[in-house]
Amino acid sequence: MKILVFVEQRDGSIKKSSFEAAQAAAGLASKAGGTCAGLVVGSGVTAKAAELGAYGIGRVIAVDQPDLARHSNTAVAKVITEIAQREGADVVVLSASSTGKDLAPRVAVQLEAGLAADCVAVTLDGALIVCTRPVFAGKALVDVTVETPVQVLTLRPNVFTATAGQGAAAVETATVQLGAGDFGTVVTETRVASGRPDVTEADVIVSGGRGLKAPEHFRLIEELADALGAAVGASRAVVDAGWRPHDEQVGQTGKTVAPTLYVACGISGAVQHLAGMSSSKYIVAINKDKDAPIFQVADYGIVGDVFEVLPELTAQVRAMLGK
Amino acid sequence: MKVVVCVNHVPDTETKIKVGPDGVSIDRTGVNYMLSPYDEIAVEEALRLRDKFKGEVIAVSLGPDQHKETLRKALAMGVDRAVLLKDDSPRDSFGVAHALAEELRAIAPDAIMFGKQSIDYDGSQVGTMVAELLGLPSVAVVVKMDVQDGKAVCEREIEGGHEVVETKLPAVFMAQKGLNEPRYPSLKGIMAAKSKPIEEKPAPPATARVVVQRMRKPAAKGSGRIVGTDKGAVGELVRLLHEEAKVI
Question: Helix (H, G, I), strand (E, B), or coil: what is residue B107?
C-alpha cells in the first residue's frame, strides 16, 4: 500500500487537521506494511515540510512554485493527481477541511477513484480499508469500502489525534507544469477573523439557544467561551432569528462538531441539533426545563436559569484557570 | 442566461433515523421527505440570476418518482422546467455526479447551482465531481456571489473566515446558508407549478465506486447526571469537569 497524504498550510504553518491526517495515514501505512509520503503544495511551503517527521511521515514531496502563490482548487487538484500518479499511490488521504473537501472530489475523478468522504475511523480488514463515516449529520454511521484500484479518503478534522513525536522528514522538491487553463478559479483574498476558534476546529464549544431570550444576552456565552478559550456555537432557532451569524450554527443544517467539551446553554435539543453535536466527548447542559431532550445526551446537567448559572460558571472557570 | 439547479429529495431534518431491514440503508417507513435545505438556497440563487440576466432556470434531480415532489417545490418557487433522471436504486456520489454531468453536458448551462451538501449522505462531493467531469471551475460553500460580464466573484466559508474566489462562467457553485433567504412558494406559484413540465428519462447507469457494507446507529449515550438545580451546583460541575472528565 502506497499512501500519499496532502498537507495544508495556512499563514506559513501546517494546519492541525493536516497533522491529524498525516499521522492517521502514516499509522494506516505501517499497519498495512506499506509506505506513506507527504505532499505540500504552494509557494514558500518547503520550510515547514520537515515538521511532518514528528507525525510519522519520513518523506515529503514539496511542490513549491511561484505560480501557486494564490490558491486555485483546479491547479492544486492537478498537482495532487500528478504526484499521486508519479508516486504510484494507491491511497490518497486529505483532511476533510474546507480546502480538502474542495480538492478531493476533483482528485478522485481524475484518478478514476472512489472517494470516502469525511471519515471518522479508518481500519484495516485484511488488506481492505474500511472507512466509517457519519451520515444524516451523525444520526447514523456507515462502514464503506472503496472498490476502485486507487482510493481517495478525507478525514474529519478534530477526530483523529495528532501527537508530535521526534524526527524530521526528508523533503524533496518536485515541479508540476501548470498553464493558464489550469487556474479555473483563484483565491484573491483570505479573511480570517482573529479571536475565537471556529466551531469545527475547537476543543471546547459554548453554545447558546433560545433560552438566552435576546441577542445581547449572548455576551454571557462569549464570556464563558473566552474564559475557556472556546468557540461560540448557536442553535438553528437563534441563527434563523438573526441573533447570531450562520457560521456558528451547530446541527444538521449547520456544522457537525465533535469537541472534547460542548456546553449547551438554553438549548432544548431538537433532533437536528443533537445530530450535530452528540458525538462530543463531554456534554454539559444548562436549561430551565428538566424534560428538555438535551439532558438525554448530557454527561452533566444543571436544571436551572442560564442567567444565574452562566455568570457563576464563568467566574469559577476564570478563578480555576487564573484568568 | 441558462441556469441549472440540481436538487435532492431528503428526509426531513426532524427525522429520527432507523436502519432499514437491508442493514445498509435507512428505514423509509413514515419518513417525511423535503427539498434538501442547501438546495433550496441554490434554487433561490438560480432564480435571482435568471431575474437579473433573463433566461431560464432548469431544475434537475436524480432518483425515484418521489423526487417529483421536490421538483414541484422548485417549480413552485419559480423554476421554469424540470428534469427527473429516474433511478429506483441508490447510487454512490460518483454515480449521481456521472449521470448529472451527462445531462448537463447536453443542456450546456452558463451556471450550475448545487447546495453545499445534501443533508442525507453529507458527502459534499457531487457538485465538485460534476464540475470536474465537465471541465468547469467550481466554488464550494458560497455565502456571497456577484456575477457580472461572464465573471463571478464569490465569498466562500472556510474555517474561521472567508475566501474571496474569482472565476469565469460557465461554472459550478455550491450554496451555503447565508447566501440568501429562500422565498416561500406563492399560491400563484404553486398553481403554476402544476402545469409546468417535468421531463422524465432514465438515468445513465454507473458502477458504484464506494459501497456501503453496513449502516448502524452510533452508540447510544447514556443519560448523565443532573448536578443540581441552581447556581449552587456550579462548584460541583467545575469539580467534575476538572477531576472526573479532566477537560478543564
Answer: helix
Cα–Cα distance between A205 and A232 in angstroms, integer? 6
For A234, the grid coordinates are: 448557536
CATH code of the domain covering residue A173: 3.40.50.620
- A69–B contact, CB cutoff 8 A: no
How far A207 CA sits from the closest chain B CA (Å)? 16
Mutate: best of A142, A297, A305, partner B, most B CBs <10 A: A142
ipTM of the modeled complex: 0.96
Beta partners for residue B6, in sequence order: B60
- What are the phi and psi torsion angles at A248 (to 5°)? -95, -5
Residue B135 in grid coordinates: 471541465
In a domain, B212, yes or no: no
Whole-angstrom distance, CA of residue A288 vs CA of residue B247: 24
Give the model confidence (pLDDT) of A136-191 as tens digits.
999 999 999 999 999 999 999 999 999 999 999 999 999 999 999 999 999 999 99
Q: Which set of grid coordinates corresponds to residue A100?
A: 480538502
In a domain? residue A222: yes
Tell me the per-residue pLDDT of B115-126, one tens digit each, with 9 for 90 and over: 999 999 999 999
Kindly state whether residue B106 falls inside one of the protein's structural domains. Answer: yes
Q: What are A295's three cell numbers?
A: 439532558
Grid coordinates 504510484 are at which residue? Answer: A88
The three-state secondary structure class of B170 is coil
SS3 sequence of B59-101? EEEEECCCHHHHHHHHHHHCCCEEEEEECCCCCCHHHHHHHHH
| E-strand stretches of chain A | 2-7, 9-10, 13-14, 35-42, 59-64, 91-95, 114-119, 121-125, 128-135, 140-146, 151-155, 170-173, 185-192, 204-208, 231-234, 261-265, 282-287, 300-303
- With a CB-CB cutoff of 8 Å, which residues 79-98 of chain B face chain A? 92-94, 97
